[in-house]
Specification:
This protein is mainly α. The protein is 53% helix and 5% strand. Helix 2 packs antiparallel against helix 4 and helix 2 packs parallel to helix 5. About 9% of the residues have low confidence.
Length: 211
Amino acid sequence: MEEPRVHPNAAPGNLDLETGRAGGGVYPPLPTPHGQSGNQQRLGGAGAGPPNSWVGNDANTLLVMATLITTLAYQLGTSIPGGYWQQDTPALVDGKQVATYRAGDPIMRDLHRPRYWVFMGASWVGFASSMVMTLSLLVRMPVGSRHVRWSFVVAYSSLVVTFVVSRPRTHLSLDLLIWAAVLAFLWIVISLHPDRRARVIQDLCCGGRGT
């Protein structure tokens, strides 16, 4: 009598003890490395451990965050600090009329023109970057890709720019330095491995001295 053949790849525990044939049982999925789910593995990269903690984020959570940033950037762009002129207002310099501020024009544009253009540029950049992040996540681009990470950093830091620029008492160059510092900090937090990130922050804050 011919003995039943068993597929060489069949698991030993899946054999029928009476017939010797491989059974049709279903095994649970094998655990993935580093305790990540299969969905996180697909989002984070090609089968390797995550290079940083950013890739462990859920794509749906980031999509909601990108939508919120888009909404905030839109509201900032349509609600300029200082408001708008309520009526035509003549501007006088040394007793002479040199211009007329039209009703409905932004007050910030007429009185603080450089600050106004920085504010509008930041709001538009934040709006566009958040839309790029939203589109990247909708087309299933990996969370750890540069498109998603860089668009988030630019969009999130633009909110800081619009906030500090809306305060006319600070110098514009200082506002831009704050934006550059926030941009660099966010990129360090998102891009670097947690161990390396801690060393970089320690070097920046403590001048490389050990604790």
